[in-house]
Amino acid sequence: MSIQDLEKIFQEKIDNEIKIEPKDWMPEAYRKTNIRQISQHAHSEVVGMLPEGNWISRAPSLKRKAILIAKVQDEGGHGLYLYSAAETLGSSRDEMIADLHSGKAKYSSIFNYPSLTWADMGAIGWLVDGAAILNQVMLCRTSYGPYARAMVRICKEESFHQRQGFEALLVLSKGTDAQKAMCQDAINRWWWPSLMMFGPKDSESTNSDQSMKWKIKRKTNDELRQQFVDMIAEQIKVLGMKLPDDKLQWNEERKHYDFGEINWDEFWNVVKGNGPCNKQRLAARNKAHDEGAWVREAAIAYAEKSKHKKQAAA
Ligand code: 3HC
Fold first, then answer.
1. Is residue 109 lining ligand 1, measured as CB closer than 6 Å?
2. What is the pTM of this model?
């Protein structure tokens, strides 16, 4: 079959909502785009454990500590499902992890901001996981089968993450003046970086057009960002707090909230490795990898030993 015929069959499958599976023929660019996006997503989950891991030993109660440990563990698990999904496309886990550790691979800009107070744990759950969910619900219907299936379980866990974050902030919002102020301060610091999670404006998004045609993405960056603003602008009323945006206003004609301009210079600066915590995050991941070398060596030695035992018994 000619490449044109193969491409036609491939696009027909996409148009007819038939999932693309690992052994199916696919254009090289489709494979590469999926490896890029899925591995960036996996790295985001793994690096995303760091700002919260920072608060496990300082959680204000046993209950909060148990919730936070479970959440951080979930993020690690999400990273593993996603690395496995990317491996089905022919990229090795070692390669992907080496790219993260060298600073070559991207991961979500949001995890390069510091978590300064306990209220940040609530704001991360509510805003960061809230933004992640909107994007990930769409990805449950992405065209590549293993990615779509991984997202179904991830979304269930993310919705628990978001609710626990909102509930933690709700408690603070009803607390002492100092607790209320801590809650507002965390919202002020995480709001704009959360909006940046959706990526550049559609007009600047290099991958969106092709990814929409291949149904890797089902909604554009701006569509999802608007959906997020509309959702949070209502939820914040329950907290009795304010979003740090003077331009935030319901637009009756558009049936959406208008909102202020994102600082795109800050976004690109963080993406390029110059955010407040980029260096710290990569150093922490590299240290964890180096310190885990003995576990990998032991696992390989055990696998070798088991193989020899089986061969000897055969
Ligand atoms: N941070 C860092 N880089 C970003 C970014 C962000 N917030 N948004 C976009 N970029 C990068 C893109 O990766 C792309 O770079 P590349 O071409 O060199 O790879 C470039 O900016 C241009 O952006 P595009 O809009 O063209 O890129 P995409 O079409 O890939 O869209 C995306 C960006 C919407 C983030 C998409 O990749 C996506 O949906 N990814 C999967 C979901 C994901 O990774 N979420 C991250 C958060 S996960 C999380 O928060 C877990 C939580 O449980 C803790």
1. yes
2. 0.95
